[in-house]
Amino acid sequence: MNLKVESTIQLCLADEVMYNMMDEEMAKKLWSRLEILYMTKSLSNKLYLKKQLYGLHMNEGKEALSI
To answer: Which of 31, 29, 38, 33 is nearest to 9 (CA)?
Structure first.
């Protein structure tokens, strides 16, 4: 089960993030490391995420969102 969860998480990561996570062998440790790196609740992170959210728009005639 751990291998399946770990593989699923790794498949969802961008290449540059995956490169930093290759050492982790347990899904729980991998998830914890991702939380530490990307779930900070600082003001700058919140502002960045809001900017990303408000920058989303749908191209006319397409189903995919683009930034």
So the answer is: 31
